[in-house]
Amino acid sequence: MPTDRQLDQTISRWLEAEAPGPLPDRVLGATFERTRKVRQQGRWRALLARLHMKGFAMNKLVPIGLGAAAVVVALVIGAQLLGTPNGGTGSGASPSPEPTATPEPSVAGSATPEPSAPAAGLELGPFVATGTDDPVQITVNIASSGWVPLPAFDALHKNDDGLDSPEYVGAALLAWAWPAGTGFNVYGDPCQWSTTVPETPATTPDEIAAAFAAQAASDATAPVDVTVGGFAGKAVTLHVPMAYDVPNATREEKFADCDNDVFAFYGVEGESGEVRNAQGAGQVDELWILDVDGSIVILDATYSPATPNELVEELRTLAESATFGN
Amino acid sequence: MRRDLVEAASRGDHEAFEVLATSVGDRLYAVARLILRQTDLAEDAVQEALVRAWQQLPSLRDPDRFDAWLHRLVVNACADQGRQLRRWSQQVRPLLLDASVSDDTGAVADREQLERGFSRLKPEQRAVVVLHYYSGFSAAEIAHMLDIPEGTARSRLHYATEAMRAALEADARQSTVAQNGTA
C-alpha cells in the first residue's frame, strides 16, 4: 500500500507521462484568426481597469491648461504615427462604437495614459466625447470641474474611487453611437444573458427601451419620451439588484451565478459577446436612447447608490447637454 | 514583462495576446487533454478558452492572476465541450498504452489501473486532480480558481486520490492472487 507521498508522486508522474506534446500550430492559428475578428468585451470594465491603473487614481487628477493639453494631443498623434499600440480592438467590418483616441482639440487626455502620467481634467465648455470614426459626433458641455475623459471608451467620469458598486462614489457618462440599422440584443435576463438573446434585435429607440422595460432583474423604469439636442427618443433607468452585493468579493465572484460571471444589459449585432455590463450591486444606469438622423445614440449615465445626489444631478445635466453632428 | 503583456493585451493589443497565448498554449492543452482524454475535444477546449480569454481580458483586474484565470477558463471550456457532446459525465476511454515507454510510475499495469481509476472519476474531480498533481495548484488556489469552497476542493481531491489509490491496490491484490494461484 503506497504512502500518501508515494501516491502523490505516482499520480504526478503518471500525469506528466500522459500529457500530450505541444499544442498544434493550427489550433493557435485558428484561435488567432478568431480573436482578430472579435472585439473584447466589457468596455466598461476595461474603462474602470484603466482608471484603477497605478498613479491614475481620480484623486490624483489635476486640471491642466490648454497648452499642456495641446502637448498631450501632440503626443497622442505622434504615438499613433509611430504605431504605438493604443488599445485597438482588432479588425472586422462591424460598427465601431469603441473608437480609438481622437485628436480633437478638446480632448485633454491620452487614449493610453502611462500609468504614472497625470490625467487631465477637462476645460469647461464643449467637449467632443466620440471618436472621429463614429457615425455621430456627440458633444457635451462641461459645466463643472473634475470631469476626466477617456477617449478610447467614449466616456467621461468623475470622482472614481477605484471601487466597484455599491461602494463606488463616482459617476460616468458613456456616449456611444451606432450606425442606422444596428440591431441591439437586449437580453431577456442580464444574468442569463447568453441564453436570453432575443430572436429579433431591437433597432429603434422605442423597441430598445421596450426591451429594457421587459428585461428581467434590471428593475427598469417605464420608458418615457425625451428630447436631447433636438432629437427624440426614450429614456429608461436600469438597476442591478442588491442581491449581488457580496462583501469583499471580486466582480466575477459577485456575478458567479451569471453567464461568464457577467451581468450584461445588452449586446450589439456584429460584436461578440455583451457590450454593456454591470460593475456591481446597486449600480444605476440612466439611458437616453435617441434616434439621431437614423443612427442610434445611447447616453448612459451610470452611478452607484453611494454616489452623492449632487454628482448625479451634475451627471444628468451633462448628458442632457448633448448635441449631435456628423 | 508578463504583466506588461497581460496589461497590453487587456487594452486590445493583439500581438501581446498572441505572445501570451503561445507561451501558455502547451500547458493549457495538456490540462485539457488530461481532463477530457480526447485530443480533438482538448484542442477545441483550448481554442474556446483562448478566445474567451481575449474577449474577457479587459475584465481581469489583477494581471498577476492571469495564469489561474486562464486555467479556470480552460476547465470551464472542458466542461462545455463535454456537455455539448454529452460525454463529460461518462467519458471513459481506455488509454492507448505504449509499453515501450519507460517511466518512473512503475509497471504498465500500474498505469492501466491509474487510468482506470482516473476515468471513473467525475469530471469535476478529474479537473481537480489535474490542476493539483499536474499544474501544481494548491487546494486553496483551485477553490479560488473554480469558484468553489476550499472544503469542496479538498474533498474532491481527497476522494479522487483515494479512488486512484483503490485502483492501484485492487491491481496489487489481483497480482497477489495470481501469484498465489488462488481464485
Written overview of the protein:
The complex is a heterodimer of chains A (326) and B (183). With 326 residues, chain A is of the alpha+beta class. Chain A has one domain (41-325). In chain A, 23% of the residues lie in helices and 23% in strands. Chain A is built from seven helices and 15 strands. Chain A has helices at 4-18, 25-35, 43-51, 66-81, 205-213, 251-254, 309-320, and strands spanning 62-63, 120-121, 125-128, 137-142, 148-150, 155-158, 171-178, 184-186, 224-228, 231-239, 264-268, 274-277, 284-292, 295-303, 323-325. In chain A, strands 5-6-7-14-13-10-9 form a seven-stranded antiparallel β-sheet. In chain A, strands 3-4-15 form a three-stranded antiparallel β-sheet. Chain A has a three-stranded antiparallel β-sheet with strand order 8-11-12. The longest helix of chain A has 16 residues, at 66-81. Chain A is globular. The model of chain A is unreliable at 48-119 (pLDDT under 50). Chain B has two domains: 1-91, RNA polymerase sigma factor, region 2, helix turn helix motif (Rna Polymerase Sigma Factor, Chain: A, Orthogonal Bundle), CATH 1.10.1740; 101-183, Arc Repressor Mutant, subunit A (Orthogonal Bundle), CATH 1.10.10. Chain B has helices spanning 2-10, 14-36, 39-56, 66-85, 108-119, 123-134, 139-146, 150-180. By secondary structure, chain B is mostly helical. The interface between A and B is large, with 54 and 56 residues.
Which features characterize this protein?
heterodimer, A: 326 residues, alpha+beta, seven-stranded antiparallel β-sheet, three-stranded antiparallel β-sheet, 7 helices, 15 strands, 23% helix, B: 183 residues, mainly alpha, Rna Polymerase Sigma Factor, Chain: A, Arc Repressor Mutant, subunit A, 0% strand, elongated
